[in-house]
Please model this.
Amino acid sequence: IGTCENEGFMVASMIVPTLFDPNISVETIETIFKNEMMRRYPNLPSYMRDAQAREAVRAYVQDTRVNGLIEAGSLFVGDSFVAWPTYAFALSLSGKRTCTYSIYCPNSWSLPIPPLVESLEGNTFYYELKHRPSISRRPDFIGTDHADDLTLMTGAQHTGKLGLLPIELSNEDKIVADTMFNAWSNFAIFG
Model:
């Protein structure tokens, strides 16, 4: 099971358009974080949500220029919607029932374990892809975004195509793609 370094740029562009306002500010980022806390934890007292949002701003905002704020917001959205739930699911598959997020959740967050997962045995492998494919069209400061791994794990290094679209991967892309392709193939064959 895996995620990309920044899962949120594409997702945020669909659900948080204010993140891409050229006049974005740290206050806007904090509001975005508070809104997500309210959506996720409607019964949490507002003072706790506000404190968690402030802590998330401290953790995510490394650069207060526009690109830095967009990066921080998209990282938060990606972690919230994709990376954390994926990691929690990987932990549940490995037999660990609870994940604790010190920044995002004031208390432990337990992922409900589906009955099928409870019956599974074996190793669980989790990866975070940090290699940005050379064909990515997203801004450089975003890094690896949601679905960038598809280019590297579908055999495009052998076919020169992503689906029906012709693509040309760099040599570094091909090395990473071979590694991912082999890992996923071994998983499919051997479990």
Summary: Helices lie at 8-15, 26-40, 46-60, 66-93, 115-118, 148-153, 156-159, 171-190.
